[in-house]
Records
---
Amino acid sequence: MGMVRMTSIELPIAHRGILAPRSPLRMTLDRLMANRPAVLGMIGLGLFVLVCYGTLPWTIHSYNQQNLNAALQSPSWQHWMGTDALGRDLLSRFLLGGAISLLIGIFSAMIAVGIGLTVGLISGYVGGRLDALLMRAVDVLYGLPYILLVILLRVSLVNRISHYLAAIGLPQAQGLAGIMVLLLGIGGVSWLTMARVIRGQTMSLVNQPYVEAARATGAGPSRIILHHILPNLIGSVAVYAALTVPNAILAESFLSFLGLGVPPPIPTWGNLAASGVQAINPIHTQWWLITWPCVGLTLALLCLNFLGDALRDALDVRTR
Amino acid sequence: MTTYIIRRLLLMIPTLLGMTFMLFAVVRFAPGLTTAGGQYSAGVMQSRQAQKQEQEIMERRLHLVDKNGRPISLPMQYILWLKSTCEGHLGTSIVYQEPVLTLIEQRLPVTLTINAIAMAVIYLVSIPGGLLTALYQGRLLDRGYGFMSLALYSLPVIWVGSTLLGFLANPQYFNWFPSAGLHATNTENMTYFRYLGDYFYHIVLPIVCLVYSGFAFLSKQIRGSILENLQQDYVRTARAKGLPKSTVLLRHVFRNSLLNLITLTGMSLPGLLSGSVIVEQIFSINGMGRLAYSSTLASDLPVIQDLALIMGVLTLLSYLAVDICYHIADPRVTYD
């Protein structure tokens, strides 16, 4: 047998990479790169991040500069995207808004993954009474209408947090408090599905022979969870996180439309679009106020969704 | 099966208790929610005496104070609210001055019909879509459909809704559709079919807004489960014994893929009841979503509490219904 393996025919093939073992990460990346929309999504997202965050030093100063003489101007060489009702340059508001929207998406996803992963892991690993208790809690939150929870959280927390922030001496306390509660609300509601999925997978992983073997060699619960279970969950966590980011950005735009998003002077794509919607009226159509933020929002969501979708395909066992 | 249903119903009790507790906590911690409602009481020009009296009646109704006007402690408030809810006494809205149950009776049918129609449209497109994309996996149709449905999913509904409203229901551009509400003003002169036609004419734009983003997820799920079933042994057997391709696909693969659909449908049932706040808001439709939204903004405490509770109960019941349907559709699944 040993002789057969050493034959000169097999080696070159292995070197060409056909038979060479590939790590799961490598395989996933290869599949991702073969997916054209996903690559486009990554490029688009990279561009967005570069432009929105690269211009941050300028936009952070100019986003709230009012010039009432130049109110509601359509796009021109001076103001590439036009100006809003207070004469503020829409381009700088758009760029800063994009940066904040992306941050909201990423932070909400992080909160959702953090809570969902912890609850799911504990529930699935420990099982028994604790599992039943945690899953009942998830059921409770699932049963209550999501929008109501977010609204109530907002109503009950914004003023408290902004008082606290103002007491520390932070500028824009109201706005920051609004963003924090928004993150808490969106992230705090999005972890439920995550927790259920992780719990189910953990329960099936715990019964795998290799986990038993690890336990037999004397590994403690923390070692088993961190070294044996968690690495197997990374796929679903990545997919779920990638799909939560666009959902959170979209949720922010909904809430802004309802007047429950980030408070006014701070721009996000959601509240720019929402205030643009209110600017639609039959007499003066200020198309630029709604078009730019919505185009930005749509393109970013498109990139994120393509990426998330491709990631799901790349990690999905079924379509392999 | 009966014991299973009874056990599930009993298991709902702790979940429901948790829900009420959660609701109570969030609502009571919201500053102003328990007091601000008073300013909406019916009469505007009232003597101070009458105002005070009304405030007191309201506070008693909300179990904030007892018969003698003394404040009640928080835990006791919770228990009293729970007790009166269990006895079937739902609250009375402060803003509308009507029982919450009446409000829900008015709005639930509105939301339910629109969402049911929207869901039917989504399924009518997504099921053939999922089937075809699975059959033509990796081909132009598959990729094109996937791209289009995901692109539609990425469009924010506030943009689509307000643009449709601004261009298709606007005398300045195309005055094709009505811009608000569900009925024309002269409905009482209409025959039944005219009335129905008028209704459908009014819901076209809202339905479009509810539908367009729903294709991506559902089609993808159906495609996935059909692809999974296509690789099963029984498909090979069916083909080997010479069944025509269409029979294999429709009678064997498709029917088995429908199982997955039951779960998905069940998960979307609660959304059917709560409605879409955004679409109802854009098109001025008085449904459940708008009721929940406006009463939260107006601090209408009884409506918020009872609405959320009823939705919670309906959600739990719909999950139970899914499990029962699943059992009926697939006898292999047992719950013992």
---
Amino acid sequence: MPSWSSHLLTEYFTAVNAAADETAAIASAVERATEMVEAEVGAVVREGRIFGAYGFGPVVPEAQLHEVAAGQPLLEVPYVGELHAVSNPLGAETGDALIVARLSEPFDPAERQMLQGMGQVLGLALRSIRVLAAERHLRAEKERQASTAQTRQRLVESLLTIQRAISARRPLPEILDAVTGGAAELLGGATVTLVLAEGGPDRRLTVASKCGDGTTPPESLARAAMAGGAVVVRPDGAGWMIAAPVRVTGEMAGSLVAHLPGVGGQQTEQRDQLAAFAQQVSLALTDARTVEAVREAHHDPITGLPNRALFLKILNRVLASRVTLADPTSVLFIDLDRFKAVNDSLGHDAGDQLLALVARRLRGCVRASDTTARLGGDEFAALLHDSPPEAAEVVGERIVAAIKEPFRVAGREVFIGASVGIAISREAEQSSEELLHNADVAMYRAKKDGPSRVLLYQPYMHAEALDRLSLRGDLQRALREGEFRLQYQPLVRLADGDAAGVEALIRWESPTRGFVSPVDFIPIAEEFGLIVEIGQWVLETSAVQVARWRRDFPDLGLNVNVSGHQLVHPRFADNVMRALAIAGLPSSAVTLELTESVLMSEPDLGKAALHQLRGLGVQLSIDDFGTGYSSLAYLRELPVDELKIDRAFIARAELTAEDLALVRTIVELAQILGLRVVAEGIENAAQLAALRGLGCGYGQGYHLCRPVDPEAVPEQLARAQVESPVGVLDHRSTA
Amino acid sequence: MQTNPHRWFGVGQSVAPRSRKAGAEAAAEAIGGREAKAVLVFASSSHDLPELLAGVRLEAGPDAEIVGATTMGELGSAGVTDGGVAVAALGGDGFTVQARVAQISRSDPRAAGAAAAEALRGLDDENQVLIVLADGLSGQPHEIVRGAYSAIGASVPLVGGFAADDRKFDKTFQFYGTEVLSGAVVGLALGSDGPIGMGVAHGWRRTEPPMIVTKSSGPHIYQLDGEPALDVLLRRNNFEGSAEEFFDRGRSLQPLGLSRRSGEDIRVIHAGDDEARSVWGTADVPQGALVWLMEGDRQALIDGAAWSCTEAMARLEGMPPLGVLAFDCGGRRAGLIEGGLEQEMQAMRTALSDAPFAGFYTHGEIARVRGALGTHHLTLVTLALA
């Protein structure tokens, strides 16, 4: 590729990826590409339509452009002439393409190659914009839910104030005024009126309390709410009227009516809020000391089930009243699978609706004398009296089966699942909290084994939970006592089989636990903040080691994995440079590997440190590349030098067409950006051949070299130079 | 001088201090008693511009299209002037002209380019060109030209220049009839039954090593190779002192060349900020671009001028030129001080076989013959008519 074209690619890449939407990205890409190859005209064919046509003037020859997309090398443009055209696919599967056409001379191979790259960059950018747009939509939805949550919080606070007034036995008019006042405030200045039916045969309605100076609502509306026993919403001029029924000990007693002037849209939320206040009125009117009032205070408003506090009270009472230990009490801890997905995708209201339906099914799975409760979120519990383990397990299975059946929520079928943990009370002194906790532990363990399982609590599960805590202590000791060691796996240049570098891999041989896989202990180290120290140890140790090997293999590089937790450490860059300085290893020999997921979850994470390190010569690699979405975004923002293609795309016995297409795209993208590509997990000769064929520069994997102890590394490096598993040099390979 | 030619072109210049007189004098010389169809006026912003245009209108008559722009110096067959006026006029049955004007909106500079290109509507002459004269301080010259190009497409060439205001970088003006506008784009569509030729050349060369624009926004460059841009320019010029001192000296204008398929696309950097350590010119310098500091010795620049003229002439299908419009970058003057300007004019006269020419020193040149890119800097753009 001649130098001018590679110079332009960065500029093109930056411009295209800076576009905020698809139209802008296409326009930017077409104009840049057209100008850069000194073509006259350009356009994009996408999903069968022409976009961003540039340089044609008022009449765009759409049919001819479609022909170019289909392979026709010439484009007739009115009043300009017959132009040399080239179509550059935006991706492997579709017929979408970036087209440019030039009058003066045909495009040479280097230009075609650059334009192919431009097409792919545009394709990736467009896909990335779609994903980002979807993400943005999700985020907006989340923000909306957050604001709903805030309103709910205010509602709860307001209701609590009224409840305190009720329980403090404040005068009734004062409580009723607090209800209408609270409702008016929450509904943003609505006029709220409480009308109550008097005794007597005609049940005349009178205004008991009113807040706001709007009109008194029509009697008919209040009566409609009372007659139907449900909230009534009616448009009123530019606004809405909402009426919620008020009951006293189950009997219809009146209505709470709100007038919301000049409010548009759905009144779902206001309706629910008003209904909640109406309930408070009911409470106030009923004797606060009645069982009914207690019930309201201890029940989950969404499902009508007892809440956690009440469940524990009942459980306590049951445990205390047991006559013999022979009649065991079982506690089932039920956790819904995929509830969050439903809540996130269909909205909070749908989520609430689903919870109510789940509650109804749960009640259907137990005897009338048993208690079911909603503990919070998507967690439920059931208390089974006189129920041996076997019977409890049967109930658990029944629950799992019942929840598996589809629910109809917000007009569509929703599929969720449940995991159930069971704890049986055996000891006389067992507390209700402990029993529930054990059921929780069993549920956690059940979930780990897969969805829709029922598991009976065993003491070992408790130990397992404790184990995570003790692992932390062991990790601290391992650091202190030097139980960690390193192995090294060469990164092999596929063109000649030489080892270009080694990746340092941590190993832990615990005296008490035996060999512990990094997959198991790294997350714990991250969770407990030990990763920074461990990461630093790896860097320091490997830097010293590689500096020593470089006496014999002067070009040897070092790859070290870096955790996101290290990256945000304020002294990260200093720590890296200090380790290299002590070891005497030049910064240019070091490549830090970051996983794509870390970069994706926190795009701004440690960016400053990475730029600082890059400025000092340290190189940056993206590990597991291809597993995330917004790859392009951070490739633009971060000073990346190397991409490691995730083993998931390679480590199959036979690579599929999709695998190859993806790998090819990554390799080409890397070539465009001037990055190294390392294929991970090469396990057989077929994979190796395929990757070399695609022009992948470097590889790692068992087929090339397993991770080895440091003592064996020099021998491996020397052997690699003599006889390589890469074999004969393939002319298509690029370094 | 012909009396009733089928196509004619004339030029005139004036350094008269009184604006009305200067306008009338230069226009009279250019028109030479013929019936002008279009009059192009290039004048220093130091003139009383409405007065100057009134003088031009007096000579041009009520029907001639008058278009023009303020300058960083005027040029013509008679030489280079500062604070003066240069006029080109054309007429005859073989030419068709039509003018349009549009104000530049900050949020959509393209629309103005497209609207000015409307001047071409209805023209059906065999040869056509759109002459664009635009405000040179909008900060988005490329977008204006892209707007014009997207409207007319590749079938018609584009030529012209961005207005300047001597060296004040404060406010530039465009002329449309006798109106004096600012922040505007004026389009003059010219149709002819004779050939039209264009030439573009610069005469600068790269100074190694190149640099990456690591941070920029519009025409502002903040970092080159990750280092504050002003520091880089001062260091590469072995200059110690403030930005103001640097850009006020003779070498003040710093041409940067963006790597392009057939050479460099040049940007002129004319100012810097000591606090922000940034520098800027009048056109976009895209982030991520590879740029060279450009240098040019006098001879190379003069050769560039000759080459531009020769190229334009070569496209006249062997016919002798009636005359030439010239859009010369203000930045080129920096390399041609102390007698170089006269040499440049002499080179142009020779290359044009003494055909009359007039034009101005710009804030950027417009030329699109092939390809899609139409904005240039530090070039001499010539439009030859036959």
